[in-house]
Amino acid sequence: MKNPEKNKSKNKGDAIVELKHLTWEDIEELPKEKTIFFLPISPMEEHGPHLPVGTDFLTAEDTAKAAIQKIRQKDHSIHCILLPSVPLGYCEFSTDFPGSFSVSSHTIKEVVYSFGSSLATHGFKYLVVCTYHMALGHLKGIYAAMQKLRKKYHMHVCEPWAPIFYSQEISKAEPKLGFETNKELHAGFRETSLMKYQYPYLVSPKYQNLLPCHKDLDSPRIVFQKLKDLGVTQGYIGNPSKADATYGRWFFNFTVDTYVSATFSLLNNEKPRPLPKDTKNKIRLLFWQ
């Protein structure tokens, strides 16, 4: 098969080409300077009594697919390849609830590095890591892998969402809501809105009756503590009862646009946007991970 784009017929007619549908010859024929791979990776993790444990995983995968479609619309010469989604992440703080499966930062590093190094060995240069899980232990593994890929293979690799999430740019860009959203940290207004837009049939109606729950997760006193230790007895931090599908659509598209912009910057050999300095410092303090 000379053109892997023909494989889109196996993907219900869209423009998404998935690695799992290609032969090694298809992959070998891809133009190295015009091919970029997308790796969705997020854990199975509890998201309150109202959202599925796959919330972060589904969002990482769906935003990656939507970004690929948008990139292809903008420039048909770019070959976007979707790698198999990886249902792994560091989420130790939520493992006191069933449905949360946590692995170490080192494991995440090895997984991301293995994908990247395998591609780089065969001449590929571009990789976008798509994660919606913002735990610092999770990001530590991803960013360590990216640093190693850049150093050993001079690979162009980025993770676009964390620099936006930790810079507070979401609250600056989002529609005026009349209430503070920066404290919506886990399965609260933002994520419940997102899932109401993406998968309304997976959102339990009980979200409407959940009371606000806010906790400061920046305090050094919470190190090694889990959610229930902090008094988060139902597994959410925020105010899910305010969730709105219209906001969810905006949030989804904002994420997609972030991926698209980062992808074109990567292809132009521009340096990826870094994590904020204070976020990097916090990650460095996770010496046990």
Characterization of the model:
The chain is an alpha/beta fold and 289 residues long. It has a single domain (31-278), classed as Creatininase (Rossmann fold, 3-Layer(aba) Sandwich), CATH 3.40.50. The chain has helices at 24-28, 55-74, 105-121, 136-153, 161-165, 169-173, 189-198, 245-267, 277-284; strands at 17-18, 35-40, 79-82, 126-130, 156-158. A five-stranded parallel β-sheet has the order 1-3-2-4-5, with helices on both faces. Helix 2 (55-74) links the parallel strand 2 (35-40) and strand 3. Helix 2 (55-74) packs across helix 8 (245-267), helix 3 (105-121) runs parallel beside helix 4 (136-153) and helix 7 crosses helix 8. The model is unreliable at 1-13 (pLDDT under 50).
What distinguishing features does this structure have?
5 strands; 289 residues; five-stranded parallel beta sheet; Rossmann fold; alpha/beta; globular
